[in-house]
Amino acid sequence: MANINIQFIGMNTSENLEIFILKKLEKVAKFNQNLIDINVYIKYENNSENKGRICEVEMKQSGLHVFASANESDYQVAVAKAVDQVQRQLDKHKEVKLSS
């Protein structure tokens, strides 16, 4: 299993959110066993231009680095969207690799 690092930036940690994140990442890691590192950053930005609850997900495997970010009004929605974006990037990479 990949090394998973979850950081809460500028805010208190949330055990419930951390558990939610780990469950989402388990599904991705299950189908992408070559993952080395997974970094998740949870932030809050009080800014009129966005919704403020930000999740950034970065995944690395040998020869590949993918990143996604989501900005929503709810942290769980932001996590789900960012993880889905990363999963699509990993799937796209697999398709390209298989067609080569």
Structure description:
- The protein is α+β, with helices and mostly antiparallel strands and 100 residues long.
- The chain has one domain: Double Stranded RNA Binding Domain, CATH 3.30.160.
- The chain is built from 2 helices and 4 strands; from the N terminus they run βαβββα.
- Strands 1-2-3-4 form a 4-stranded mixed beta sheet, covered by helices on one side.
- The two termini are 27 Å apart.
- The mean pLDDT is 89.
Question: How does the SSE layout of this entry go?
Answer:
Layout: E1 3-9, H1 15-31, E2 35-44, E3 53-61, E4 64-72, H2 75-99
Parallel strand pairs: 1-2
Antiparallel strand pairs: 2-3, 3-4
Provide a concise account of the structure shown.
The protein is α+β, with helices and mostly antiparallel strands and 100 residues long. The chain has helices at 15-31, 75-99, and strands at 3-9, 35-44, 53-61, 64-72. Strand 3 (53-61) and strand 4 form a beta hairpin.
Specify the biggest β-sheet: 4 strands, mixed
The count of strands amounts to 4
Q: Oligomer, anyone?
A: single chain
H/E topology pattern: EHEEEH
CATH class: Alpha Beta
DSSP strand content: 35-45%
By secondary-structure content and strand pairing, the structural class works out as alpha+beta
